[in-house]
Automatic annotation (TrEMBL):
<protein>
    <submittedName>
        <fullName>tRNA (Adenosine(37)-N6)-threonylcarbamoyltransferase complex dimerization subunit type 1 TsaB</fullName>
    </submittedName>
</protein>
<dbReference type="Pfam" id="PF00814">
    <property type="entry name" value="TsaD"/>
</dbReference>
<dbReference type="InterPro" id="IPR000905">
    <property type="entry name" value="Gcp-like_dom"/>
</dbReference>
<dbReference type="GO" id="GO:0005829">
    <property type="term" value="C:cytosol"/>
</dbReference>
<dbReference type="GO" id="GO:0002949">
    <property type="term" value="P:tRNA threonylcarbamoyladenosine modification"/>
</dbReference>
<dbReference type="InterPro" id="IPR043129">
    <property type="entry name" value="ATPase_NBD"/>
</dbReference>
<dbReference type="InterPro" id="IPR022496">
    <property type="entry name" value="T6A_TsaB"/>
</dbReference>
<feature type="domain" description="Gcp-like">
    <location>
        <begin position="45"/>
        <end position="120"/>
    </location>
</feature>
Length: 295
């Protein structure tokens, strides 16, 4: 049986990455070379990702002037988010990786959302953060994350949001400084928005002055409808604790940031096993939950 190539320690890292994510209503595809963006394709395809993903990938490859045989790895958003969308992306990534014998890097869709939203809001470029991602080569994933997080305790906080209905959000917490890739402070999960904001308010109250964030960025689905309610909840609960540091920034996921997160993993030699990579559903799909409830 053919086996996927695992990146070697020196220096078989992914130079050209195909990156994509379909966990939100935005279908995001990018082709990266190192920390540089070669091409990107971004469109709204809610409930129709399966019909357009392959053509979007081909369009991005054509725009970049890259044949799929020239790729060195695949980065894919694994969720959380849309149950069907995450499954489509992961299945496509595994199929391509198997056929092309490439390493695959599963990326948290919330991490990519946080990275892209903060970068756009704070004026950080793909090139600058790509150089930062490239700078973590030669360190283990655990040491890189621990050292960087210790250096960034007083940086910005980034809170990515995806609506999960019924007052819930898919969310996490990251910290970052200009010119540096974000580092994780709290795991991905589905949380009640009000409870999550109260938890963050408690973190702010407990933090020493020098450990408090320079800014708190709420990024992602923060516009119309329920998403607007989430933004209002953040302002109401965090406002007294965050003051002028709280910033709400609507943002739709872009493929370049999935690619940069994949680049960092590739440089750390941290690929996923092809046959065990699965979407991060976080919760059961509603239809499955109803089926189990009747059992």
């Amino acid at each position: 049986m053919n086996k996927i190539h695992q990146p070697a320690a020196e220096p078989a890292v992914a130079r050209r990455l195909l990156a994509f994510d379909t966990s939100t209503s935005s279908l995001a595809v990018a082709v990266m070379e190192g920390g540089s963006l070669l091409a990107e394709h971004h469109l709204h395809a809610e409930r129709n990702h399966s019909a357009v993903l392959i053509s979007a990938i081909q369009e991005a490859l054509d725009k970049a002037g890259i044949h799929k045989s020239m790729l060195d790895g695949i980065a894919v958003g694994v969720g959380p988010g849309s149950y069907t969308g995450a499954r489509i992306a992961v299945t496509t990534a595994k199929t391509l990786a198997w056929a092309l014998k490439l390493p695959v890097y599963g990326i948290s869709s919330l991490e990519a959302l946080a990275l892209g939203g903060w970068a756009r809001a704070a004026g950080q470029t793909v090139a600058a953060l790509g150089a930062s991602a490239a700078g973590c080569g030669g360190r283990s994933a655990a040491n890189a994350s621990q050292n960087a997080a210790e250096e960034l305790v007083s940086g910005d906080w980034i809170v990515p949001l995806m609506d999960a209905r019924r007052g819930q959000v898919y969310t996490a917490l990251f910290t970052a400084k200009p010119g540096r890739m974000p580092e994780r402070l709290a795991s991905d999960g589905i949380r009640l928005m009000a409870s999550w904001m109260s938890e963050l308010a408690g973190r702010l109250e407990a933090a020493a002055p020098e450990e408090r964030p320079a800014r708190i960025w709420i990024v992602g689905e923060t516009e119309a409808g329920k998403a607007q309610q989430h933004a209002e909840a953040a302002c109401e609960i965090l406002g007294p604790h965050a003051g002028e540091t709280l910033q709400v920034f609507p943002y739709e996921l872009e493929g370049a940031w999935v690619g940069l997160a994949g680049l960092r993993r590739s440089l750390l030699g941290d690929s996923d096993q092809l046959h065990t990579l699965e979407p991060n559903y976080t919760q059961l799909a509603e239809a499955e939950a109803k089926r189990l409830g009747k059992g």
